[in-house]
Amino acid sequence: MTDLFSPGSLGRLSLPNRIVRSATAERMADDEGRPRPALAQLYQALASGGVGLIISGHLYVDPGGKCHPEMTGIYDDKLIGDLSTVVDAVHAAGGRVAAQINHGGAQCSSETVPEPVAPSDITADYLQQPARGMTEAEILQVIRAYAHAARRARQAGFDAVQLHGAHGYLINQFLSPFTNRRSDSWGGDLTGRMRFLREICSAVQDATGPDYPVFIKLGMVDAVRTAVATGVEDGLTLEESQSVVAELESMGLCGVEVSGGIGNTSSRMRIRNPEDEAYFRDLARAAREVTRLPIMLVGGLRSRQVMEDVLESGDADFVSLCRPLISEPDLPRRMEAGQERSACISANRCWPQAPNEGIACRCTVQRSG
Ligand SMILES: Cc1cc2nc3c(=O)[nH]c(=O)nc-3n(C[C@H](O)[C@H](O)[C@H](O)COP(=O)(O)O)c2cc1C
To answer: Where are the domains of the chain?
Structure first.
């Protein structure tokens, strides 16, 4: 039986409990991607609040993959010092932190990337602007950017790296037949569509060394139940993503966080009852069938009862939380002391409305004290 507060491990990284802070774009960086002091303060609060592992908000590996304003960067050595200040704040509070590294591809805001790239030419309702198919030279350059970003993460002191392979960003775009319509060796069948991920894993391991923990957040289905139509009906399917999961260990990865959906559809709204929680649990079960790697489940985990049920059933080894830890960064400590449920009502009012705001819980029901 796996208790929420029992230790676990991710590759060579030991974690004190089973609660993970899922990557959350904090919007606390300046125009060059340097984290503002607020980020270190937030991470210190999370680490002091008892979370087993913090996964950073997505960090852009290349200016051409900067998804939105105020995103934190990891695209240049000049950022290592500022990133290490953030890491040091976590370690000083006794916590652990992984860097989530990402390239937005087609899903970059027009404010940050006026001419975005993608596996192939794409125009879609859910995209702000059309994107252009990449040349092979551009693909190889982006793979090198991931490798350098992972090397910088290690140099800055991050305990692990997570590749963002979910929510419609570039790795997901290569895997999905909706966005990858290439006919060369980077597209076509699933083996071709997986090549970008495989080569990133290999380059990242060469850059960080074989023992450094590298894991992935994988979107296992593109089309999910949502109020907002993305129009991605013929995207990545569960059958194909199971085949991807089956390959992750051979790619040298040490764990998988299971998610789904494109963009914000991964953050389902109005989670009020236990039946609404853990809405990607079926995907975790599908992953479990084909891998021995540790599995993290994200999406709607709110009550201790459901979190423990997920762990005890063996569907996942870790539970990963985003919005509840925006609302209450010390939720793990509160739960250890007897609080049964997160105060988060999943109204998605935590996204910033104005520059310099950063993520914050703006729901009036936020619990106090
Ligand atoms: C404000 C906000 C920012 C997010 N930023 C990221 C991100 O940078 N990387 C990522 O993989 N997911 C991101 N997500 C998705 C969450 O990590 C998570 O998968 C999703 O919200 C479901 O978990 P929850 O129900 O615990 O919120 C973000 C979600 C929110 C609400």
So the answer is: 8-336
